[in-house]
Amino acid sequence: MLPLQLIDTFLLDYNIGQALLLVFILSTVGALPLKSRRIIGINTVIFGLIFLLTPVTLAKPHYLFFGVTLLIVGPILYVTGRR
């Protein structure tokens, strides 16, 4: 478990959009060894919703458009995955 002060000092240097992008990249890299497009698609859709629902006052507006893009790409990854 990370101490809250460490997380606080990290978030002071970056906005929440950049932190969410880092978590999205790390979770995608973590899911790659599973070799499942469906899991990556579900991960993409969930982070698309998170980016879309993040208030613009906390993150820049281009993260909103990134969320819309993830919501388009995620279902395509899910449908093209094998059962």
TrEMBL record:
<feature type="domain" description="DUF8006">
    <location>
        <begin position="1"/>
        <end position="83"/>
    </location>
</feature>
<feature type="transmembrane region" description="Helical">
    <location>
        <begin position="63"/>
        <end position="81"/>
    </location>
</feature>
<keyword id="KW-1133">Transmembrane helix</keyword>
<dbReference type="InterPro" id="IPR058319">
    <property type="entry name" value="DUF8006"/>
</dbReference>
<feature type="transmembrane region" description="Helical">
    <location>
        <begin position="39"/>
        <end position="57"/>
    </location>
</feature>
<keyword id="KW-0812">Transmembrane</keyword>
<dbReference type="Pfam" id="PF26028">
    <property type="entry name" value="DUF8006"/>
</dbReference>
<protein>
    <recommendedName>
        <fullName>DUF8006 domain-containing protein</fullName>
    </recommendedName>
</protein>
<keyword id="KW-0472">Membrane</keyword>
<feature type="transmembrane region" description="Helical">
    <location>
        <begin position="12"/>
        <end position="32"/>
    </location>
</feature>
